[in-house]
Amino acid sequence: MYEGAIQDLIDALGRLPGIGPKSAQRIAFHILQSDSEIAANLVEAVRTVKERVKFCTQCGNVSEETECRICRDPRRDGTKICVVEESKDVIAIERTREFRGKYHVLGGAISPIDGIGPDQLRIRELMQRLADSTITEIILATDPNLEGEATATYLARLIKPMGINVSRLASGLPVGGDLEYADEVTLGRAFEGRTNL
Amino acid sequence: MYEGAIQDLIDALGRLPGIGPKSAQRIAFHILQSDSEIAANLVEAVRTVKERVKFCTQCGNVSEETECRICRDPRRDGTKICVVEESKDVIAIERTREFRGKYHVLGGAISPIDGIGPDQLRIRELMQRLADSTITEIILATDPNLEGEATATYLARLIKPMGINVSRLASGLPVGGDLEYADEVTLGRAFEGRTNL
């Protein structure tokens, strides 16, 4: 244990996700020993995020305005909504340049074990957006795991009866991967979803 | 890429040691989404460290006072100095409860490739402490790697002619380890340093 302030910083850093005691110590000493500028930048960045970054009132994505960049963009196709768990997923999909519609960020996935049911997610807000009949297609891009699949199934059941086209991202072998290292569930999905050539 | 503030925070976090782009993103969203208290704690801890934590004028260890807790402690044996590279090493040795003398923190090890020579380390300060004839034993506890060994050899050559007892921490098999997994250098050292039973 260190004296006072340095231990407090190690503790504060150690509470962040993915930072263990050794990394927290290493980062604390780095902050202590490097220019004041590095510490000042970090302090400023944390404060600005807490002050300025909000969530888009439309889609729930992070944004510094009432509506996010994508929701404000008139060139985006307003008839398609891609539903994701987190803002990070929006960035990942944007990088593919495959999708030019809009998004809806749920803020997580249904997970009874963590006490997260449909009411804890932004599903009511999604339903309100769907009430507007301009939306004709929903792409469910929740994670390909238990919680993500459950959430997709739940949403599909809710949305399909509204006459809206609902699809799910394909599961299969990762591109550049090695067939022999694929787990059996992924390989099974790849068979199921095989496409004709 | 995110908009403004959140990307700035990801960048600031990504500049810390051991935090890659994915962890930086994860931590930034954690800070954004959790209570303001977590962000406030972190901001406060970083600022306090930069404001309050200094280095002990005697030994170079981190301290909030002019002299650190160990240098101020009259029960510590002032005739022995254990020389280490970093403040973290002081904590590691204190945990063993084997040593009741004082410390000297060099602030690194001699590493020509990184442009660190004896002048960049707190070696002059160590020599000044040794001018006081109360010190009779120096234990060199630099890291058991190339730079640490070079530093220990350099210091031994400097200090031995002063008639001070100079020793180096033993190298050998780690306790609880497995002989067959020890690297050949470590195993060689364990042979060299074998003790009679």
Automatic annotation (TrEMBL), chains A, B:
<keyword id="KW-0479">Metal-binding</keyword>
<keyword id="KW-0862">Zinc</keyword>
<dbReference type="GO" id="GO:0003677">
    <property type="term" value="F:DNA binding"/>
</dbReference>
<keyword id="KW-0863">Zinc-finger</keyword>
<protein>
    <recommendedName>
        <fullName>Recombination protein RecR</fullName>
    </recommendedName>
</protein>
<dbReference type="InterPro" id="IPR015967">
    <property type="entry name" value="Rcmb_RecR_Znf"/>
</dbReference>
<dbReference type="Pfam" id="PF21176">
    <property type="entry name" value="RecR_HhH"/>
</dbReference>
<keyword id="KW-0233">DNA recombination</keyword>
<dbReference type="InterPro" id="IPR023627">
    <property type="entry name" value="Rcmb_RecR"/>
</dbReference>
<keyword id="KW-0227">DNA damage</keyword>
<comment type="function">
    <text>May play a role in DNA repair. It seems to be involved in an RecBC-independent recombinational process of DNA repair. It may act with RecF and RecO.</text>
</comment>
<dbReference type="GO" id="GO:0006281">
    <property type="term" value="P:DNA repair"/>
</dbReference>
<dbReference type="Pfam" id="PF13662">
    <property type="entry name" value="Toprim_4"/>
</dbReference>
<dbReference type="GO" id="GO:0006310">
    <property type="term" value="P:DNA recombination"/>
</dbReference>
<keyword id="KW-0234">DNA repair</keyword>
<dbReference type="InterPro" id="IPR034137">
    <property type="entry name" value="TOPRIM_RecR"/>
</dbReference>
<feature type="zinc finger region" description="C4-type">
    <location>
        <begin position="56"/>
        <end position="71"/>
    </location>
</feature>
<feature type="domain" description="Toprim">
    <location>
        <begin position="79"/>
        <end position="174"/>
    </location>
</feature>
<dbReference type="Pfam" id="PF02132">
    <property type="entry name" value="RecR_ZnF"/>
</dbReference>
<dbReference type="InterPro" id="IPR000093">
    <property type="entry name" value="DNA_Rcmb_RecR"/>
</dbReference>
<dbReference type="GO" id="GO:0008270">
    <property type="term" value="F:zinc ion binding"/>
</dbReference>
<dbReference type="Pfam" id="PF21175">
    <property type="entry name" value="RecR_C"/>
</dbReference>
<comment type="similarity">
    <text>Belongs to the RecR family.</text>
</comment>
<dbReference type="InterPro" id="IPR006171">
    <property type="entry name" value="TOPRIM_dom"/>
</dbReference>
